[in-house]
Design brief:
The protein is of the alpha+beta class. The chain contains two helices and four strands; from the N terminus they run E-E-H-H-E-E. A four-stranded antiparallel β-sheet has the order 1-2-4-3, with helices on one face. The protein starts with a strand and ends with a strand. The relative contact order is 0.26.
Length: about 60
Amino acid sequence: MFGFRLRMENDSLLFYVEDDGPGFDLQSVQRRSSGLALVQGLARQLGGEFEVTRTRRPDAVCGFQ
């Protein structure tokens, strides 16, 4: 399963990307992943923030105000 959704929260637009994969250790991946660095850089250029959360479903979230 792969999905995405947009949600307004206060004055922010949140873009969620989620899947049912096994997840990953963010700290170890950040040291060797150019893909995550690219997404973080693009979010900064657009004035947003990028966050990966690990709850019952791992989410990657970009938020923009």
